[in-house]
Amino acid sequence: MDKHLQLLEANRAWAKRMVEEDPEFFTRSLHVQRPEYLWIGCSDSRVPPELITQMKPGMIFNHRNIANQVIHTDMNLLSVLQYAVEVLGVNHVIVCGHYGCGGVKAAMTRHDYGLINKWLRHIKDVYRLHEAELEAIADEQMRLNRLIELNVIEQVQHVADTSIVQRAWKRRRAPHLHGWVYNLADGIITPLIDIPAGSHLDHPIYEFEDLQV
Ligand code: CO
Fold first, then answer.
1. Measured in angstroms, how far is the CA atom of residue 211 from the centroid of ligand 1?
2. Can 96 be counted among the known catalytic residues?
3. Using an 8 Å Cβ cutoff, are 88 and 33 in contact?
4. Distance 107 CA to ligand 1 centre (A)
């Protein structure tokens, strides 16, 4: 059987099982989604948000890209963020990175990867911002792990730096922002940073003082 047909077969079995367990499961959420969480994660196949957090369809609004980047000119990310925060009204935005991230590892090298250089460039900027701390770590694996953590922390701050989030903080004291790192070796998520709604930002230059609410 072709590999992709396995997916369709598994899907039929899953849909059947869901209805057996809960006859209203699909009809209940047919016309509305009310996710509590926006998940900004890495595209890595080993870090599937719903599976590792035991969430069901309808609970997590998702955006995934290489190395869980939050780039302030990325229309895709910004559209997802605005919709999640302003229309769906999510109360928590989670940026989740993971140890062993190939994107961050590639960014730490000086290899030319072609087009993806443009994407990895943002992680190189994180490296430069934290150069002193990173270069004090002698062990290469430990240094990579720390860059993975610092990258998550930077990306959460980028979420806070948007007018989308700052306007929502003024309007409804939400969402709360969280930065997590997932360990491929044991399946455990460790929190790295929390930014409650209304917090001051990492630098005042990012705080809009005349937001129209
Ligand atoms: Co990754």
1. 34
2. no
3. yes
4. 11
